[in-house]
Amino acid sequence: DTAVSQTPKYLVTQMGNDKSIKCEQNLGHDTMYWYKQDSKKFLKIMFSYNNKELIINETVPNRFSPKSPDKAHLNLHINSLELGDSAVYFCASSQMGTKNIQYFGAGTRLSVL
Amino acid sequence: EDQVTQSPEALRLQEGESSSLNCSYTVSGLRGLFWYRQDPGKGPEFLFTLYSAGEEKEKERLKATLTKKESFLHITAPKPEDSATYLCAVQVDPGGGADGLTFGKGTHLIIQP
């Protein structure tokens, strides 16, 4: 069983469209994250979220919004897509506490044309 | 600003040739240092976490160590299947545990048969 799963794996779309990426974890964790990996393979945190708070990286445009229907899911909505949004997006989850090890999904490759 | 610097950017070794990867960090307060392995087209896979200077962890041919300023990932007698990008990341205090990881840019390791 995949611990952290993302769909779709690939997403090709036009500039200006709105899209969503889904993430689900079956680890029973209470915290989920979204990261962006750019063309130079550099991973950067976008959001972290648990049932108490949403922490947003200040560099993330407000066109990006995380939505969590329940503890096991954290979806990423992107409005008005731009060319620069092309990247691989990774979802991760962890259990808050002393160890807080984050486990990652396989990624969603977004291409904006 | 928290910084994580990995070196070298790329490393090519012969099978059986031991070496070390470096991760130096500048953070306000280290909560934990993490090593991940990333294969092409996949998400980061957790390897180790270290919490205090002097700590060491081992797994098969890999050994991670931590000082107050840097961490090393030692690879002993590597095999071709150890080829991957190795990522170092830190989590800082105060962070409440829900903050994301700050990643370095990774070391791309190639083990030639």
List the helices and strands and how they pair.
The complex is a heterodimer of chains A (113) and B (113).
Chain A: E1 4-7, E2 10-13, E3 19-25, E4 31-37, E5 43-50, E6 54-56, E7 64-70, E8 73-78, E9 87-94, E10 103-104, E11 108-112
Parallel strand pairs in A: 2-11
Antiparallel strand pairs in A: 1-3, 3-8, 4-5, 4-9, 5-6, 7-8, 9-10, 9-11
Chain B: E1 3-7, E2 10-14, E3 19-26, E4 30-38, E5 45-50, E6 56-59, E7 62-66, E8 70-75, E9 84-92, E10 102-103, E11 107-112
Parallel strand pairs in B: 2-11
Antiparallel strand pairs in B: 1-3, 3-8, 4-5, 4-9, 6-7, 7-8, 9-10, 9-11
Task: Characterise the protein shown here.
The complex is a heterodimer of chains A (113) and B (113). The relative contact order of chain A is 0.34. Chain A has strands at 4-7, 10-13, 19-25, 31-37, 43-50, 54-56, 64-70, 73-78, 87-94, 103-104, 108-112. In chain A, strand 9 (87-94) and strand 10 (103-104) form a beta hairpin. Chain A has one domain (4-112): Immunoglobulin-like (Sandwich), CATH 2.60.40.10. The model of chain A has no long low-confidence stretch (mean pLDDT 92). Chain A is built from no helices and eleven strands. Chain A is mainly β and 113 residues long. The radius of gyration of chain A is 13 Å and the shape is globular. In chain A, the strands form two sheets. In chain A, strands 2, 4, 5, 6, 9, 10 and 11 form a seven-stranded mixed β-sheet that branches. By secondary structure, chain B is an all-beta fold. Chain B has one domain: Immunoglobulin-like (Sandwich). Chain B contains no helices and eleven strands. Chain B has strands at residues 3-7, 10-14, 19-26, 30-38, 45-50, 56-59, 62-66, 70-75, 84-92, 102-103, 107-112. In chain B, strands 2, 4, 5, 9, 10 and 11 form a six-stranded mixed β-sheet that branches. A five-stranded antiparallel β-sheet of chain B has the order 1-3-8-7-6, with no helix packed on it. The radius of gyration of chain B is 14 Å and the shape is globular. Classes of the chains: A mainly beta (113), B mainly beta (113). The interface between A and B is medium-sized, with 32 and 25 residues.
